[in-house]
Each structure stands twice: as structure tokens, then as C-alpha cells.
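FORM 7B: Structural annotation worksheet

SECTION A. Query
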Amino acid sequence: MNVYVEGVLALMGINILLALSAYAILATDRLSLGNAGFMAIGAYVSSYLSVNLGWGLLPAFALGGLTAAAVGLLVGLPVLRLQGIYFVMGTLAFGEIVRTFFQNFEPTGGAYGMRGMFGTSLGMIYACVAVFLALFLAYGMARAGLAADAVRDDDEAARSIGINVVAVRLLSFAWGALIAGVAGALFAHYALYIESGNFNFLVSANAVLFVILGGVQTVWGAVVGAIILSLLPEGFRFLADWRLTAYGFILVAVMALRPEGILTRGMLRSLRRLLARTA
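SECTION B. Predicted structure
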């Protein structure tokens, strides 16, 4: 496999994890633009552990993700009290605070960034994707997953049947933060150099876009959206300066024709029935 293809596949795997992190929060009817902040926490914490303290990749990644999850719990407590656009702006502000913090935090390189990480493998990236997908599928079939669906569909009705809406949303927020933290750790150890600009607002916006384009009704929509939007810019390279125009045109066309996203639950049910008949 040549370096270019490997790079595209690695970025696609990391984007799938970012999409899953955004989906975890969107699945409870909350749109977060702070996932880049959690990604930065995972990236910098894991890099500091591996470069400065000599930790191995797996424990560094684990602590990076857990640190992001812990921050997610702390941030989620006040932010989840906000509604609508105020919640979106609160998470956006959090992401910018984290980015600015690492831009000025000298132990992790400050504005000069951090280097010296040793590389992770393409296989490790997709092993993480497989693990989190499996956990999502198990979660979706469990009682907690049904509670999250109820909160997304109608939080007042969910409260009326005894579901703790705040707890469901807080745990989903921390779960999304953990996945974003792991994605950041993988990115840092694949790119081998990070700086605060790698974790700007557009990273969070893209993560949400992956889910909205693919379909928020199912976790597979997040995966499909991340794959398509990772490959589209590469497929349009032959258009040179016009490739982003074509990219934007296709996004607008898909959202106009499929406002519910590419994949829906009904489509997946139909696909399962079709596969069952042909088996």
C-alpha cells in the first residue's frame, strides 16, 4: 500500500471515530460543536505521556480518552442545562477555550506545537473503530440505548415514564468525549506532530456534518457519512481549485434530496429483509 492511500484510509478511520463521537451526543437531541476540544485533550494528554513520560501507546491512548471523558462530565453538568442554540454556543466556546489553552501551554509546546510521538499503525486505527462500533451496537440493543432513543424522540414523554433525561444526556456527552479523545490520540501518533490549529471549530463542524449527511437515526449513518465525506475531496482532486465547489454542491444536493440523511432505520430494515430473502 502506498503512502497516499494509507494516509487517506487513516484519516477516514479517524473521521469515523469523530462521527461516532458526534453521533453519541446527537442521538440524545443535542448538537455539540465542542468535539474538537475533546479531540485536542486526547491528543495532547496521550502525546505528553508517550513522549515525555515514555508510556506505551495503549495506556497513553486509554488515559487520553478517559481524561477527555472526565472533562466531558465536568463540562456537561453546566452546559447541558442550556437549550437549543445556547447549548451549541456553549460547546463551541468550550472547544475554543481548549484550543487557546494548548496554544499557550508551554509543557506541550505552546504555539510551536508538539512533536516526537512515535507512529501508530493503520491496523490500530481500525481496531479502535471496530471496538467502538461494537460497543455502539451493544449499547443500542441495551436498555440504555432505548432510553437514549426515547430522550431524542420526546424528552418530556421520556421523563413521564421515569427516564432520567439529564443522566442519559450527560453520559452520552461523556461517551462522545471519550471517543473524540481516542480519535485525537490516534491522530497525534499518526501525524507525529500536532499544534492547536489542528483542533479548530471546523473539525467539530465536520464531525456533525458526517452524522447529518449519513443520517442521525442510526449509527451506521455516521459511519457512511464519514466515509463519503473523507473520500469526496480526494475524488475531486482532478478539479484542482474547483474541487471544494463541487464538494459543496454535492452536499447541498444530498441534503435537499435526503434531508433525513442517506441512511434511515426504514432503509436498514428493508435491507435486512432483502438479505434474509436472498440468504
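SECTION C. Observations
The chain has a mean pLDDT of 87. The chain has one domain: 3-201.

SECTION D. Sign-off
Analyst initials: ____
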